[in-house]
Amino acid sequence: MKRIITILTVLTLLLSLTTGCWNRRELNELAITLAMGLDLTKDGKYLVTAQVVNPSEIAGDKGGGGGDSPVVIYQEKGETVFEAIRKMTKESPRKIYPSHLRMLIIGESLAKKGIGKPLDLLSRDWELRSDFYVAVSKGVRAEEVLKVPTSLEKTPANKMFDNLEVSAEAWSATSAVMLDELITDMVSPGKQPVLTGITADIKGDKRTTLSKQNVELIDTPAKIYFNQLAVFKKDKLIGWLNENQSKTYNIITNKEVSTVVNIPCPDGGKAVYQVTKSDSKVKGKIRNGRPEIDINIQVEGNVGEVECKVDLSKQETIDMLEKSYEKEKKEILVKSVKQIQEKYKVDIFGFGDAIHRTDPKAWSKLKKDWDKNFEDLKVNIQLNGEIRRVGTIGNSFLNDIK
Amino acid sequence: MNFFKKKKKEKKISFEQAQTDKGNHTDLLLKDLNKNIENIKLLVGNSSDIVVREFQIDLPQSIKACIFYTDGLVDTNSIQNFIMESLLSSDHAEKTRTITSKHDVLSFLKEHILKVGDIQEVTSFRSLLTPLLSGDVILLLDGCTQGLKIGMRGGKDRGVTEVTTETVVRGPKEGFTENLRTNTALIRRRIKTPKLWLETKKIGKETQTDVGIMYINGIVNDEVLKEVHERLDRIDIDGILESGYIEEMIQDETYSPFPTVYYSERPDVIAAELLEGKIAILVDGTPIVLVVPALFVSFIQSPEDYYQRADISTMIRLVRFLSIFIALLAPSLYIAITTFHAEMLPTGLLISLAAQREGVPFPAFIEALMMETAFEILREAGLRMPKAIGSAISIVGTLVIGTAAVEAGIVSAAMVIVVAMTAISSFVLPAFTLSMSIRMLRFPMMVLAASFGLFGIFVGFIALVLHLCTLRSFGVPYMSPMGPHIREDMKDTFFRVPRWAMVSRPRLISQRNNRRENVQAPKPQKEGNE
């Protein structure tokens, strides 16, 4: 008995030695990559750009904050993305650790060629969480976007991440799309993916503007900002949506959280309708053998700003403003949907999915040639806007200025 | 090994020979007083603290008599007043007419002269030696083969003082002392039912320590009581100096980090346990009283839980459960998450932790091990060191393992927080034994975490739970009422329900008489209701 116990103990102890802590990595052995850029080089290879944080530069005063840049860029070319990432260890003292990836920027040229292949690694690798946002760099290369220093948020990746979230929430003309959502849309026949666009605007000499000096200026010469939505057909970029189209996309796909809409007053001037809640129901149906889409949108909001003389204390005025908003908004929606149908001919709204849900049999017939059907699809939009509050003052003081 | 065995045997033989030689081949008292005195002196090796006082009792005819007692263990004043005084005064001549034989003298003394409560007759050397050495007075008469054992225990005692280990804010403050008699009295004072029974045994061949077994007849489980007796009778040891000796001899499982015998130095705790149907084992010479059977949850319950309001007690008890987990797992979770599962941390926290680790030369495991070891050393030093320099240790401790280590870049600041949190959590448990087991188990958990990550922690934890579920304390499953699940008993496990809802006694402990009282929830009396 004693012998067995001794042997077991020794074996257990030896066992824990043999593991060698096989995938143990200390925190200071990680190159924490918060943003990654994918570009296409001229010779058809991938150019992978990794933005790695320098922790001691970001977290507080420990180590003195020696004035180093908060992030470091590592770049490598490769036939495949994985190859390029592993190659980075030629330059990086630590292995790229992408678990905390927050932004993936895809270069426009690569997006046009197709993003499916390079995304396989990112969805397959177990080190990656799929909760990072994907964006397409518009007019610039992804690497350029990643090289811009930012202020307020020291890490550019965090800046982009927060920026996108705030903007998608408060303005609703950008779309925060995560990897799994993107892949779902790519494979779905009834919905095509849309990604937000990101642009870098670099003025002046690159050597100074892309250095820390950039953030030392109040009006930074180099900026990155989100702009427009990229429309994809399967995994290929085919065009960009303008602001109204982008907003339309967000409203119809129920992504709108809050935004503001300018509405005209009856006697000239403008008022602002602030959307606080928007709920759209998309229903597909087959009428007379033709597919049709009914969209019912319920919007709640406040009067955000009044730049004209109206009497807000009267119910009629409120009703009038509601009507005005509904008319204004509906016009934009109808117009934008039409434009998208005609110009891009891809179903980014998921109308196909809606028909699939209501009439799966009809869908199986329509599916094959959906893009064609989408083009001629009849879309009925119902919009109902309500005003709940008028803010902290009643009638505008403008009324009293004589 | 062989060598030692032989030697032991030889010793035993020679000791027995000496016993019999000195006892003159017979254990019984002799008629000749001088021979008896001689014998006793021989048996105790003429020890100087054994007082032998010879004198004459003036009954009509004077009789030679002698009293023996151990100096320091007896109440000298009482001997003076109630034995010597009465024996040596001559005004009892009137009553002596009844005396016809020497034996009558003895019963006459017992019945008429000695003004003492506890008197028993003894006939053999063996039966008089232990009382003599426990503080009784032995009276021998010439020409009489019997003697009297007179209870005169006294001597210096620590007295009842406030408990130091199980402190409460609300509740009685007094604690047990080293004196068995005082301790039984402290319990009796709380439970006045005649059903509170006390049985005593002498355990320890040389120390002859008094061990009391206390229980409430009718509530106690007789099977468990029988088992306690059997296990205590099985003990064959030369000395019992503390109840820990007994605990180790009667506990169910030696190779377990968890204690299967509960102890307390608070009379109110012991009284409460007795009322639940448990059995208390009191040992002379220690204020620590053992309680069996012990359940895992009793180590997490503090007497104050029952003195405070129920809702507050419940919250505090949940805090205690939480702190067990912190004390056991905090360092290992830190190691596992930072070295294997960094993706689990929020990005901001990860960067901040990574920044703290910049320049730390050791892996997180070594770092944690160093800090935990340093803490254990400090804790032990604080305990063993003379109280006067205790404050010095705490200053050095905080400076060394706190600030300095971080500033020197040997450990990261987060690790200091984790270790400090663990240390404080381990002091939350009311029972010191369990908190020691948890402190000890922390280290294997850290090793598992360092080699297998969270997976290792889970395997270790599951093994721990399995082990806990196999344990039994005197036949009662250790983890009850959680495993096996007993619904009625859950009222006093994670929660403490109001007093009036504690209707039944713990099911597995008290088999009979399970209902406490028919108590009802208090509510305002409605007018005209009665």
UniProtKB/TrEMBL annotation, chain A:
Annotated protein name in UniProt: Ger(X)C family spore germination protein
Q: How does it sit in the membrane?
A: Lipid-anchor
NCBIfam families in the record, alphabetically?
Answer: spore_ger_x_C (TIGR02887)
Task: Please report the stretch or stretches of sequence annotated as the Spore germination protein N-terminal domain.
Answer: 23-199
Q: Where is the Spore germination GerAC-like C-terminal domain positioned along the sequence?
A: 228-391
- Tell me if Membrane is a UniProt keyword of this record: yes
Taxonomy, superkingdom: Bacteria
| Cellular localization per UniProt | Membrane
User: What is the protein's major site of localization?
Assistant: membrane
Q: Keywords, A to Z?
A: Germination, Lipoprotein, Membrane, Palmitate, Signal
The text of the family note is: Belongs to the GerABKC lipoprotein family.
Instruction: Name the InterPro entries for this protein.
Output: GerAC_N, Spore_GerAC-like, Spore_GerAC-like_C, Spore_GerAC_C_sf
From TrEMBL, chain B:
Domain of life according to the entry = Bacteria
* Transmembrane intervals: 318-340, 389-406, 412-434, 446-468
Is Mitochondrion among this UniProt entry's keywords? no
| Alphabetical list of InterPro entries matching this protein | Spore_Ger, UPF0353/GerABKA_families
Keywords, A to Z, come to: Membrane, Transmembrane, Transmembrane helix
Q: Which family is annotated? A: Belongs to the GerABKA family.
Q: Mind telling me what this protein is named? A: Spore germination protein
